[in-house]
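Chapter review: from sequence to fold.
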Amino acid sequence: MIEQKLYQDQNFSLSYLVSGDPKNKTVILIPPGLGRARYYLPLIKILSNKYFVITIDLPGVNQSRLPKNSIPNIANSIIIFLKNLRLENPTIIGESYGGSVAILISQALKVEKLVLIVCGEYFTLWQKIILSLFFIPTQFSSTLRKIYKKALHSVASSKPNILDFSGFNDQQLKIFSQRFVKTIWFKLPPNYHSSVKILIVASDTDQIISRNNYSKIKNIFPNHKILYLHCNHFNCLISLEKNNYSDLLSFVSQ
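The token string follows.
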């Protein structure tokens, strides 16, 4: 049974879903965008067979009222909520934009493991991850600024969470994204190396991470636990083939 609940604080409110036995270990699932928790019901049901699953519903639908256009503020609000639950070493799963939030949460809370879900589809995800991490006020953002200072076309000062890619052609964007993967996404603090898992979900239409490129990526990052799953189109976990759910559950449980 999946139940929708609402956490209310003086400064924000948070809609979330709970499923599974509270006596089991806890998994915090953070979907990639606005109000998308309801699309993850099949995955939630699979995870709840083994875990107590709390799915965060980011701003956009239902009754969540969180600071918009500010990943650090959104993460801080979720941290307040999770601390109030007094959870013991949860596993945090974050996809895309939700992965950026998950990184910040894992830095503030004691977690058992962090699973970052990376979708292979080029236009639907890589730009989101770049946008998300670029403005997080941590070592990630400072490193990004140093590496890509010359490559960035422009940053809209009036909208600090929007990066303008209009000056790039497709090939430049592809190179930009590949460099991003190699230098930033996998360049996590040393204490993360034993606990971070990278889950790549990709479709046949992917331009960057395909079945053929997966082995190369795994060889580049031998210290990370990386799993490749195939989906039937570009919507990442939402369209994940059902026979891959058991592989995903096993990957999270390892």
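Two observations follow directly from the output. The chain has a mean pLDDT of 62. The domain at 2-122+190-253 is CATH 3.40.50.1820 (Rossmann fold).
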